[in-house]
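Friendly challenge for the regulars: who can give me the structure tokens for this chain first? No prize, just bragging rights.
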Amino acid sequence: MLWTDVNDIAIELDEQHPDVDPTFILFTDLRKLVLSLEQFSDDPEKTNEKILEAIQMLWIEERE
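First reply, four minutes later:
Bragging rights claimed.
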């Protein structure tokens, strides 16, 4: 997965971290969780606040 695969990332995060509330996660913590995903293989420095916000919003939607 790459940073642009925001929907796939949100699904994986929801499956692998059911104990984390995506509504209140800090972007620094979200970035760490994304980087820890086994399928993730993009450059850790190629993200920004907009991408992390998109992942967070999709993760919240996935929860609902």
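The chain has a mean pLDDT of 97. The chain has one domain: 6-63. Your move, everyone else.
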